[in-house]
Amino acid sequence: MHILQWFVDLGASVMLPIIFFIFALILRTGIKKAFYSGITVGIGFVGVNLVLDLLTESLGPAAQSMVHHFGMDLQMIDVGWPAASAISYGTVLGSLAIPISIGVNTLLLTIGLTKTVNVDIWNYWHMAFTGALVYAITNDFTLGILTIGVHAMVVLLAGDLLADDVESYFGYQKMTFPHAASAPSYFLAKPMNALFDRIPKFNQIQANPETIQRRFGLFGNSTVLGALLGLLIGLLAGYGIQDTFQLAVQTAAVMLLMPKMVALLMEGLTPISEAASNRIKKRFPDRDLYIGMDSALTIGHPAVLSASLLMVPITLAMAVILPGNRVLPFGDLASLPFLFCLMVPVYRGNIIRTVITATIYIGAGLYIATWIAPLFTEMAINADFDTETNTIISSLIDGAVWTTFIFAGSGQWLGWFGIGLIGIMAFAGLLYIHKWKRKENNQ
Questions:
Q1: Which coarse location class describes where this protein primarily resides (predicted)?
Q2: Residues 386-401: tens digit of each pLDDT
Q3: Angle at Cα 402 formed by Cα 354 and Cα 204, nearest 5°?
Q4: Confidence band (pLDDT; 50, 70, 90) for 194?
Q5: What DSSP state is assigned to residue 300?
Q6: How confident is the model at residue 385 (pLDDT cuts 50, 70, 90)?
Q7: Which domain holds residue 57?
Q8: Is 346:193 a contact under the CB 8 Å cutoff?
Q9: Where would I find the H helices in 70-178?
Q10: How many separate domains does the chain show?
Q11: Comparing C-alpha atoms, which of 408, 411, 329 is closest to residue 366?
Q12: What residues contact 365, with CB distance under 8 A and at least 6 apart?
């Protein structure tokens, strides 16, 4: 277990190249090609993280300035996903999330009830988060373990469901995103899209990046749009001219550089994905599997970045306006793309639909983050995490995600019955999809 935790502590940029190198060798791609693919994946992740760090370093101070500029006084601080992941893996249940999730994935693949091979091991921390949360509520260690297993099943169900939209919009062949922070928003976007399609006039509005660029020319370009959004955020933060212009250039740089870093990442993933697809077709001619990856691969899309930058001031405004909210969005403001990225393929890149749905989503999420804050703080204390001067802490990732409320609420109010019921529903969903897809393939 200590060796496994040491491996996870290497971080995604080191851990994933090793995983993909081994995976490529198993697929018989050859040592040279396997090594090149693995190291390219690592370089791609380093590049993505560098751009995300640029976004965090530029938006973080701007968000803090907005907080002071508008006189926000909220008692619970959003510490961000890096702290949330460290706390989750630092609890008693944390390290168990990895073998449990791998075991669930292997079992469901063996019996043919999922098509998702979830190699995104680093993000198993999301399952550790809900498991530790239920343990903090119930003080039942075994129920915490069950929660991790059920959450892993739910994530695989999400991966199977959203794979078609991911492939048709983003163009990623045989790939899906069983990301526990990103996938839940997909389930809100689906019914909302059906509702938007029934609203006269509104259903005719085209607001994807390509349409915006055609209509507005230079000002519709994603890089220029990033600069304009940076100017807006700088003005709302009360920045001077010099700092505002610097923020504008930094946000424009993120819009330009992120797609290039994701493209580099895909350069390493594509040979492995193709080899896996060919291998599976030969061994299982009637099965079609997806490689489950980090949703960071979607962050570089102009629609995702544009909508997420717009959501920064909206999220802060919601935090102030909503009665009963006590969470101050801060650490995860630069990570908002992870919450909304899988809405975008449902809306075919429509930024207006994405922002409207994201506003509803984050509004409800702030109440969830407020509710779980005392429990999250207890988790942090149990993991010996230094909360510094913040007596109560929370997080938007995963604190503002509706699945967190479902698991924690079921654990608190229904106990074993509640978590078990979620597991039964997830299993039934996987069984239905399996039979439906098989029937579709036969036809």
A1: membrane
A2: 665 557 889 999 999 9
A3: 20
A4: very high
A5: T
A6: confident
A7: 2-442
A8: yes
A9: 81-90, 97-110, 125-138, 141-170
A10: 1
A11: 329
A12: 339, 396, 399, 400, 401, 402
